[in-house]
Amino acid sequence: MLKEQLKKDEIAAMKARDKARVSVLRMVSAEIKAYEVNNREDISDENVIKIIEKSIKQTKEALEYAKQANNEEKIQEGNFALEVLTPYLPKQLTEEEVSEMLKEIIANGNYTAKDMGKIMKEIMPKIAGKFDRSKINPMVKGLL
C-alpha cells in the first residue's frame, strides 16, 4: 500500500537525517492520519493519492505567491516538496492521451455540448490521479 511506502520513506529520511524530506512526508502522513480518524477507517490508496494531489496543488499555489514575492527560500522549499511528492502519484497521462480518451467518449456516446456533465462523469474515474483535473473542462469544451 502507498501509505506503508510513505511511512517507510519517512523512516529512511529520519535515519538519513534529511529534515526537509521528513517534513514533507510528515505533512502528508498527518493528513492521512486525520482522514483515518475522521472517517474511522483505514485509508485506501485512491484516497492517499487524492491527499498527495491536494498537497501538490497547495504547494504549487504557494510557489506562485513565493515567485511573486521573490522569496527564494520558499521557492526552493516548494520545488523540493514537489520533487518529494510527485513520485508517489501514478504515471501521469499526457494531454494527447486524455484528448484521445475524450474523443472516443464523445464519439461512442454521441454527445453534444449539452451533455458536458455526462462526459465529465465518464472521464473523471479514468484519469483520477493521472491527470490535472483543472485541465479537463477546457479540453472538453474545445472538443465540443
Structure description:
- The structure is a single chain.
- This protein is mainly α and about 140 residues long.
- It has 2 domains: about 1-90, Uncharacterised protein YqeY/AIM41, N-terminal domain (Hypothetical Protein Yqey, Chain: A, domain1, Orthogonal Bundle); about 95-144, Orthogonal Bundle (Arc Repressor Mutant, subunit A).
- It contains 7 helices and no strands.
- Helix 1 (about 1-15) packs antiparallel against helix 2 and helix 2 (about 20-40) crosses helix 4 (about 70-85).
- It is globular.
- About 15% of the residues are buried.
Write the SSE topology:
Elements: H1 2-15, H2 19-39, H3 45-68, H4 72-85, H5 95-109, H6 116-127, H7 136-143
Helix pairs in contact: 1-2, 2-4, 3-4, 5-6, 5-7
Jot down its keywords:
globular; Hypothetical Protein Yqey, Chain: A, domain1; Arc Repressor Mutant, subunit A; 7 helices; 144 residues; mainly alpha
The third-level CATH topology of the largest domain is: Hypothetical Protein Yqey, Chain: A, domain1
Q: Give the CATH superfamily of the largest domain.
A: Uncharacterised protein YqeY/AIM41, N-terminal domain
Number of domains: 2
What is the H-and-E element order?
HHHHHHH
Compute the average pLDDT: 90
General shape: globular
| CATH A-level architecture of the largest domain | Orthogonal Bundle
Approximate helicity band? over 70%
Q: How large is the radius of gyration?
A: 18 Å
| Record field, number of beta strands | 0
* Uncertain parts: none
- The end-to-end distance, rounded to whole angstroms, is 39 Å
Instruction: Determine and state the CATH class of the largest domain.
Output: Mainly Alpha
Question: Structural class, from secondary structure content?
Answer: mainly alpha
The number of helical segments is: 7
Strand content: under 5%
Instruction: Describe the oligomeric state of these chains in a short phrase.
Output: single chain
Tell me about the biggest sheet?
Answer: none
